[in-house]
Amino acid sequence: MPNSQPLPATSTAPRTPQDVLREIAALGIVASTVTHQPVFTVAESKALRGVIDGGHVKNLFLKDKKGRLFCVTALESAQIDLKRLHEKIGASGRVSFAGPEQLLRHWGVTPGSVTPLGAINDTENAVTVVLDAALLTLPRLNVHPLTNTMSTGIDTPDLLRLLDAFGHPPLIARISGEPGPGAP
Asked: CA–CA separation, 84 vs 92, rounded Å?
């Protein structure tokens, strides 16, 4: 069985999409990656339906009143109440969007490329990865491998294993109206 220990950072420079894909392969995870035009919104990514199989997600990079950071991932169709989200993810007070500087510093990506796979760059463990419980009902998900010009399809259990290997076992929470396994 492949090693699932957190991967050491090789430098202070952000890891690249190729680094992510190498780590996926090193763990014995089968994934497929498609290169496409840049997509910055869920609406723009809908052009990829039929080209890429699996569930499509949206990602929010958020901070709470105490400055704690969260990468929240949900189905692209999920309705997320930002006014109440803090209650579901254990944040201190309401959450708001973190700035592009924090996104680049901790996650190694720019706006439009937010992905749970940014965990590979968070060597300080400053960010909590939150997955909506509804995601776990799908066998396969599509996430950006650190760039919005690529989408990587990965089996949902393998995404969980990859995040664990990156040292970021995700918090699974029912954050949308979508039902999820074991969600209250």
From this structure: 11
Please tell me the CATH code under which domain 17-173 is placed: 3.90.960.10
Going from the C-alpha of 164 to that of each of 64, 140, 160, the distances in angstroms are: 23, 17, 6
Asked whether the beta carbons of 113 and 86 are under 8 A apart, the reply is no
Residue 82, CB-side half-sphere exposure with 13 Å CA sphere: 10
CA 71 – CA 59 distance, rounded (Å):
7
Q: 33 by DSSP, 3-state: which?
A: strand
- Residues with Cβ < 8 Å from 70, sequence gap 6 or more? 60, 61, 62, 63, 64, 89, 91, 95, 127, 128, 129, 130
Q: What is the pLDDT of residues 109-138, one digit of tens each?
A: 999 999 999 999 999 999 999 999 999 999
SS3 25: helix
- pTM score, two decimals? 0.86
